[in-house]
Amino acid sequence: MKKVKVFSCALIGITMFAVPGICQTKNEKKVKLITLDPGHFHAALVQKTMLPDIDPTVYVYAPKGEDVQSHLDKIKAYNERKDNPTQWNEEVYLGNDFFEKMIADKKGNVVVMAGNNHKKTEYIKKSIDAGFNVLGDKPMAIDKEHFVMLKEAFADAARKKLVLYDIMTERYEITNALQREFAMQPGVFGTLKKGTPDHPGVEMESVHYFYKYVSGSVLTRPAWFFDVNQEGEGLQDVGVHLVDLAQWQCFPDRVIDYKKDIQLTSAKRWTSDVSESQFKAITKQTFPAYLKKNIVHDTVLKVYANGSVNYKLFGVNVKLTAKWAYKAVAGGDSQYAVLHGTKADLVVKQGAAENYAPVLYIEPVKNDAAYEKQLQGNIKAIQAKYPGVELKKEGKGWTVMIPEKYKDGHEAHFGRVTEKYLQYLHNGNMPKWEVPNMIAKYYTTTGALDMAKKSK
């Protein structure tokens, strides 16, 4: 690592300039990042590549422990890698008063939060109140109580002209982006079917795994990751991506008023089993005391890592499911998604037939010469935006052939989200739908949890 410095001194207040926030000096226009209590590997992925608008010195505030050390080790690996090494200078404050120290020091103007979710919403609210911009990993709220607090944080951010934003990497997965593009073509897709709860117009399911590789190494997860009171349940955590995609793909640029545009229909939750040996393999620890209430037969941890919700969005029936298992037999985290149109279904699959990589299929309702002509004509508009994308006719439908240059991988998407965030920060041009739709997203996930608990 270029430099890691543990500090304890306070910084005298300095004048804001150019970028909203409390730390910008008159002659310094670069964004200065603060990493707060980085307990999730996503915090490090924000820094996997360097961006010219970000100062190389990053201020880390956290309690002492394995979480922050794991984060610093990842940054060190990025700095020391052979290809395209980064040059981050991490200045680290460790102590139980880390949050209060961050507020007092005012050393950066953008706080990156990716870690324990139990206090994340509170940290977001207090950081906004103190004048910091916030780039937060999902989820920014894990239950109804925190949802109310998050709404207040957005209102405060608007008044203070600060930018609060969550990290939605799935928008940058090329198959998701192209699924959205084709859904916006009436000649190819038709219109989105409203469907029914049993046969929804939109169906999405993601499967994630506790044991996985990140940046080439086996990920060690913190023990608290398996406590839903600290991490959140499955649908309220990774399910945030599914809710975001349903909104972003099916109703692009449309403002959602959660009070009138969303109707929750049903929801359920269920557990994943994690054995003691599996837990040790993932965390390098034994079961902590706070998980004892969820352990059966002394050796099996029951984690409410799975959930599903049926709801209506602008009258369209949507079904979303998030699942967790221990380790993939082959491949890694995966997603299945279908948008049902009056002219065709747009389907993303990621199974054995696809070599566990996402593939987009177009399955026409009527695959005749007229439809093929329409499809071949419409693909030109997509090729203008994504050169090299082609169609391959197979069976009763079409496979969208995507050049490798667009398949940059999940980890690279964190840099692209950060670039988008910096654009909003510098130019003040966040689309008017982003904030109300973030609020709608967390209303859906936290409302589903409330419904699932009551239905049981």
- So what's the overall shape? globular
Q: What is the CATH T-level topology of the largest domain?
A: Dihydrodipicolinate Reductase, domain 2
Question: Count the helices. How many?
Answer: 14
CATH superfamily of the largest domain: Dihydrodipicolinate Reductase, domain 2
Structural description of this entry:
- With 456 residues, this protein is α/β, with parallel strands linked by helices.
- It folds into 2 domains: 3-166, NAD(P)-binding Rossmann-like Domain (Rossmann fold, 3-Layer(aba) Sandwich), CATH 3.40.50.720; 170-455, Dihydrodipicolinate Reductase, domain 2 (2-Layer Sandwich), CATH 3.30.360.
- 33% of the residues lie in helices and 25% in strands.
- It is built from 14 helices and 19 strands.
- The chain has helices at residues 42-45, 66-80, 98-105, 120-129, 144-160, 174-183, 186-189, 228-231, 239-250, 258-261, 276-283, 369-385, 413-427, 434-455; strands at residues 3-6, 33-36, 57-62, 89-94, 110-113, 133-136, 164-166, 202-209, 213-214, 217-218, 262-275, 295-296, 300-313, 316-325, 334-340, 344-349, 359-364, 390-394, 397-401.
- The strands form 3 sheets. Strands 8, 11, 12, 13, 14, 15, 16, 17, 18 and 19 form a 10-stranded mixed sheet that branches. A 7-stranded parallel sheet has the order 1-4-3-2-5-6-7, sandwiched between helices. Strands 9-10 form a two-stranded antiparallel ribbon.
- α4 (120-129) runs parallel beside α5 (144-160), α6 packs parallel to α9 and α9 (239-250) packs across α14.
- The chain is globular.
- The protein starts with a strand and ends with a helix.
